[in-house]
Amino acid sequence: ALKRHQLLVQTCSDCEMAIHPPRPMCPNCRSMELSWSPSSGKGSVYSWVIINRAFHPYFMEKIPFAVVLVEMEDGTRLVGSIDCENDQLEDGLPVEVTFDDVDDDFSMLLFRVVR
């Protein structure tokens, strides 16, 4: 879905709870009837960490960069990169999903600040 620039979240068909990370059974009602639903892509920064060492050559030119934990409107929390200066990060910063096309075969989740 990321490659198609879609953010999907696993959802329980019985109680409609958004589930992340994906699993075979709803943690709320124990239903096995799960499906995938589009996410609004909107949330707020819950926490973050600044990375100072490259763990892959792709990140060499990006250091230092932030990795954020974002609480989405549906209550799930997702990890991703963010397109803003590190000193602009703060709790509750409103963000929305966008995508970083690394190459023709791979896209990464990227958040951008909503002003």
What do you see in this structure?
By secondary structure, the protein is an all-beta fold. Helix content is 0%, strand content 48%. The chain contains no helices and 8 strands. It has strands at residues 8-12, 18-19, 34-38, 42-51, 65-72, 77-83, 94-103, 106-113. The protein has a 5-stranded mixed β-barrel. The protein is globular and about 45 Å long. The mean pLDDT is 94.
Question: What brief labels describe this structure?
Answer:
115 residues; mainly beta; five-stranded mixed barrel; three-stranded antiparallel sheet
Ends apart, CA distance between termini: 26 Å
Order the strands across the largest sheet as they lie in space. 4-5-6-8-7
Strand-residue proportion: over 45%
* Strand segment tally: 8
Largest sheet: 5 strands, mixed, barrel
Q: Could you say which overall geometry the principal axes of the C-alpha atoms support?
A: globular
Number of helices: 0
